[in-house]
Design brief:
This protein is mainly α. It is 83% helix and 0% strand. It contains eleven helices and no strands.
Amino acid sequence: MNTGAVGVAYGAATLLFMFTGMPIAFALGVTAISFMLVLMPAAALDIVTRDVYVEMASITLLSIPLFILKGAAIGRTRAAADLYAAVHAWLNRVPGGLGIANVFACALFAAMAGSSPATCSAIGSAGIPEMRARGYSPGFAAGIIAAGGTLGILLPPSITMIIFAVVAEQSLGRLFLAGIGPGLLLVALFCA
């Protein structure tokens, strides 16, 4: 069986499992395990299980669920709204200060949570209604939050950087240092 046929069969099997109502993660897992059992020799399966265990035991990957937990905790409390209110109070006299306050709040929250979607939901829930009440158009308000939310990928500690460092076998500290300059540049450009 050639590679293209295996890929098509894998995609069809995954879709079949998903259409039965199985969650996506489980559908992908069941399909992957089934195809490994059918297409790989038993010795290769032993190597795959060992490699998966070694990667999952990585102390670097352990930080990802902890960042997600921290982001969820911050998002469910008043911390995001308080952060937004504090930044807005500092910048309320600056022209466009409400938009700038949202960008700064997104940057600070991204640096705490490490996740773009968590940043957008936490800051957006407080920022978008406030901007709409002050006369910002709905599209512009959503655009400010969406742009500010992308800072979660770049500003350390970024979950994306952690995954990249593990997969590419690069220094996580050096990646974090490399993200600071471009992240601050983006914050300045979004504010301008």
